[in-house]
Structure formats: structure tokens, C-alpha cells
Amino acid sequence: MSFFKMKKDLTALKERAYKETDFSQNPGKFASLGGFFASIAASLRFVFTEKENIVFAVLQWCVIALCYYIWVQGLNWIPEEIWQNADQDSSENTAANIVLLVWSLACVGLAAFPLGVFTACISASCILRYQNRPSTFVDCLKIALSRCGAIWIFSWIDGWWTVKRILERLPKKNDRTPRSVKIIREATYQVWKMLTLGFIPALLFGRTFQDSCSDSLSLIKKRFLPLIKLRLGYSLICWIIGIGCYVGTIFFFICLDNMPAKNDIYSFYLLAGVPIIIALLFIMIIFRPLYIISACRIYVSYACDEGINARLPEKTSGFINILIIFMLLAGLIGVVLLFHQELGIDNYISTSLLN
């Protein structure tokens, strides 16, 4: 199945899930937080018993930190004049917009492969425990890599939609987007995130891509309350940590001896990455493994009720092809990162200032 076919199916699934979701059962904020901590309580002991989950969480955090640094390097290619004119006429920045869009999409794809695999590894450890089988680092990795193609494409699409949603949330000058549109976008995003909770566990259960989509939609209907409590509780915790990160970033820049210039966007994002990565450390290592395992437990309970038998995939014949594609992408990003001047990228962006 091609990337574009998967994207089309997932887009249709997201829209269908939003239309068919009954939001009248939506719990309050405190109920969501209570439901979240109730869900993770049963997962807490499992995380610290199966210590490979902590390793997978640390590796995810390292991937995000590295890919964020790589992405920020792309901001350094854009001349200061473009940032100065950004609020005046966006049409003058077409070349910079194209380069930054392609670079961002490539960086999300680069991060999506290891992030998706390590997320699947955490879910695999839960499924192995459910089957009373030993959960080791190698066993979890073997199961995750057996479905790495679908997991990578899914994680790439999910990551890009997440990045877009984060950018939409940021304050904007002269933002005329109606409040009703913002509410619908946020609700659609949260429904999508609830859908993703069952997708990877379904793939690891041995389900096909289409069956995983079907299971995800059925899960959100039959396990709506535990899913939305888990999702909204996790989201609220991320918001709280995010606000703390925002405040910490302000103090971080205040304490700096040399503040970045107003239009030195590269230095600003590079330095801002320090408090952001520190905040992500708490989310990725403490809360995210509990979130993933709690979601997997919900799917396992659903699968038992529906009579879905786990057939954990163990063949990794397609892994080599996917790994080659990933290495080609990583190599291409590395070449662009090291030789962007020789490739004419800087000249392409600068020339747009003269047109």
C-alpha cells in the first residue's frame, strides 16, 4: 500500500471518526485528569518492572532532541531580510517558504521512523506480558520492526498533522479565524489522537492496515470514556508542562548575557530548544510510556471482548527495504545539511529577495 493511499485512508478515518463521535459524554477537566491517573496507576508498576520501556522512552527523547537541532539548522539558511519582511508581504518569501516546508516535512519523516518504532516497542512489551511471554529489548524491537513500514508512514502522517496543529495554536497577529473553526479543529485533532491510541497496538496484534483502521474506529465508539479520559488527561498534563516551559523560556532568555537579535530567528530557536528539550524530558520519560501502555491495555481489553486473537508478527523480511529507504532519507538530509551552499539552496532563497 502506497504512502498516498494510506494518507487518504487515514484522512477519511479522521473525518469519519469526528462525525460519528458522541461528544455528549465528554468529561470535565478534573474528571479527565482523574481518569488519566487512574488509568496509568495500573501501568506504573509494569513500566518499572519491564525496564526496557524506560530505555525506549529515553531513545525517543534523544530522537526528538536530535531532529529538532537538525530542523533548526534550516532556519540559518534564511537571510535576516526575509524575517524582517515576514509581516509585510508573505508573497516575497515564496522561496524561503518552500524550502522551509520541504525541510520541515523531511525532518518530521526522519524523526517518525525511530519514534514510531520505539512507540511500537513499548506497546509490544505490554502485549507480550498479556501473552505471558518474556518482554525483552530484542523481542520488542523484533515485533515492532516487522511492521515498521506501516508504522513509519502512519507516524509520519501523524507527526505532520501534530506539527500543523501546534503551529495553528500559536498566537498570531490579526488572527481572524472564527472561534467555532478553532474549536472544530481542536476537537478533530483530539479525536484523531484518540484514534491513534488503538492503531499501533492493532498492527502489532497482527491486524492488517485496513483492519487496524476499522478497529481504531470501533474502539473509539466502544471505549470512548476511558480513551477520552486518557487522552484529555495526558493533553492537560502536556499543556501544564508546556506553560511551565514557556515561563521557563522567558526567564532563560532574561538570564542570558547576550540576547539574540530581534530578527535572529535561528539563534532564538536554537537557544529556546534548551528549555523545550528539558520539558520534553519529563513528558517522554515519565508520562508518555504510561500513556502508551495504558492505551495498549485498553485495546487488549477490547480485543479480548471482540474475540480478536493476537498473532504477533515476527518476520522481518520487509525491514531491510524500509531501512534502506530510511537511510536514503537520512543521507539526503545529511547531504543538504552539510552542502546546502554548494547545492545552491542559500542562493535560491537569497535570489527571491531581488525579484
Give a description of the structure.
- With 355 residues, the chain is mostly helical.
- The chain has helices at 3-20, 29-49, 52-75, 80-84, 94-130, 137-146, 148-169, 179-204, 209-222, 224-255, 265-306, 319-339, 345-351.
- The chain is globular.
- The chain contains 13 helices and no strands.
Topology:
Elements: H1 3-20, H2 29-49, H3 52-75, H4 80-84, H5 94-130, H6 137-146, H7 148-169, H8 179-204, H9 209-222, H10 224-255, H11 265-306, H12 319-339, H13 345-351
Beta-strand level of the residues, as a percent range? under 5%
- Helix run count: 13
Q: Give the ordered list of helices and strands.
A: HHHHHHHHHHHHH
Largest sheet: none
> How far is it from the N-terminal to the C-terminal residue, by CA?
42 Å
What is the SS-derived class? mainly alpha
Residue share in helix: over 70%
Mean pLDDT: 82
Sum up the overall morphology in one term.
Answer: globular
Radius of gyration: 21 Å
Number of strands: 0
Runs in which pLDDT lies below 50 for 5 or more consecutive residues are none
